[in-house]
Design a protein that fits this description.
The protein is an alpha+beta fold and 420 residues long. It is built from 16 helices and 16 strands. Bound molecules: histidyl-adenosine monophosphate.
């Protein structure tokens, strides 16, 4: 123990568990890479204003959860609470949308920061893999993203997740709905804060988790009944395309997301084994975001899947990923001369693509063999003085326990062929 601990709401990823996180990131990224999405990386912090305008001035993320600070140079920056605004900012800045190839499809993986009340599944530092398809209004693109997320979860072996789908309308029909909802909310018995929220952002009230509020929302008008013809037709086509792909979803007319930039298609992936923090991922269309941050009209759609919660979902379902052992061969030298010879062999093996490790620190045979077993390696290579004289090395199969002497000059080729 040192004097210091990981900050509240954060945790360290350590071996062997960290291997699962890498595998989850990889499993989410794989279907994106195979579908024309290019990798993008943006800074961990951005101008506060980008998130205020993009995510929304009245959202919890911006008002309560942002790690915002002023730099020594007087800039107002914030650790990124999400990826969409940054990715769109970067795409606009680099004029990717002008290269004549829309949509611009990008994927990313990284750390995000929200000053939330920590609990299981809710952290102040967490990790997402996300995808954004910028500059096209096409229901097939919305469908593609939903299908790829489903594919990613399934490739990990997850089964107990559900896809919730909704449409939030567009700038034609949403204002009409907003007003109808406001009129309805004004007639309810709500506390002052909630009434204020109803004036600023009435849709957010639908998302209020308190029972006293939910009880009164039974007869609230639904956006579904206010969608304009264009939004209705668009949504219907997304639903048909997703269904045709064999992906099952549930219509959730009350689904509102915690970020203000959404229009039309919105969706969330929830896992039933996670308790209150059940959203393992979410996303949707954000046709107005580009203009909100000073860009041209660029209808876009995307999602982000939470890596931390996906790992919790795997645990909840008892899924153990098949992770290949990282070390194939563990070298055990007995004595100084053996150490020099075997260390050179290990270097040679590594150059030939055989994952190898070495018993460092002058361990005796017993301790070194223990380390070999713990490493997960399939083979141990043991070299003693007599072996050196005979020009051989002992190759021990750690699964069967079988041991054979192999010529020093043949050992690398022998291991390469055995490990396939
Ligand atoms: P979000 O729903 O805020 O959406 O976050 C996406 C996912 O990140 C959540 O479903 C959850 O798994 C994970 N997550 C969020 N906050 C936390 C937390 N405090 N602790 C652990 N995991 C968390 C977005 O961020 C949008 N940018 C998604 C998007 C992309 N929409 C369009 N494109």
């Amino acid at each position: 123990m040192s004097t210091f601990k990981a900050p509240k709401g954060t945790y360290d990823l350590l071996p062997p568990d960290s291997a699962t996180y890498l595998a989850v990131r990889e499993a989410i990224a794989a279907p994106l890479r195979g579908s024309g999405y290019g990798y993008i990386e943006t800074p961990g912090f951005e101008s506060v204003e980008l998130f205020a305008r993009g995510v929304g001035e009245s959202t919890d993320i911006v008002t309560k959860e942002m790690y915002a600070f002023e730099t020594k140079g007087g800039d107002r920056l914030a650790l990124r609470p999400e990826g969409t605004a940054s990715v769109l900012r970067a795409a606009l800045e680099a004029n990717l949308h002008k290269a004549g190839n829309l949509p611009v499809k990008l994927w990313y993986s990284g750390s995000y920061y929200r000053y939330e009340r920590p609990q299981k599944g809710r952290y102040r530092h967490f990790s997402q893999v996300g995808a954004e398809a910028i500059g096209a209004e096409d229901p097939a693109l919305d469908a593609e993203l939903i299908i790829l997320a489903d594919q990613a979860y399934r490739s990990l072996g997850l089964r107990n997740f559900r896809i919730l789908l909704n449409s939030l309308g567009d700038k034609e029909c949403r204002p009409v709905y907003r007003e109808a909802l406001q009129t309805f909310l004004r007639g309810l018995d709500l506390d002052e804060d909630t009434l204020r929220r109803a004036e600023i952002n009435p849709l957010r009230v639908l998302d209020d988790k308190r029972e006293a509020v939910q009880k009164q929302l039974g007869d609230a008008p639904l956006l579904r009944d206010y969608l304009c013809d264009a939004c209705k037709a668009y949504h219907e086509e997304v639903r048909e395309l997703v269904t045709a792909a064999g992906v099952v979803f549930e219509d959730d007319p009350k689904l509102v997301r915690g970020l203000d930039y959404y229009t039309r298609t919105t969706f969330e992936f929830v896992h039933d084994g996670l308790g209150s923090q059940s959203a393992v991922g979410g996303g949707g269309r954000y046709d107005g975001l580009s203009e909100m941050i000073g860009g041209p009209a660029l209808p876009s759609v995307g999602w982000a899947l939470g890596v931390d919660r996906t790992v919790l979902a795997l645990e909840a379902e008892g899924v153990e990923l098949e992770l290949p052992a990282t070390t194939s061969v563990f070298a055990v030298p007995l004595g100084d001369e053996a150490r020099r010879v075997l260390f050179a062999k290990v270097t040679e093996m590594r150059k030939n693509g055989v994952a190898a490790d070495f018993a460092y620190g002058g361990k005796g045979l017993k301790a070194a063999m223990k380390a070999a077993n713990r490493s997960g390696a399939r083979y141990a290579l043991i070299l003693g003085e007599r072996d050196i004289e005979q020009g051989v090395v002992q190759l021990k199969d750690l699964e069967s326990g079988e041991q054979t002497a192999v010529g020093m000059n043949e050992i690398v080729a022998e291991l390469e062929s055995r490990l396939g």
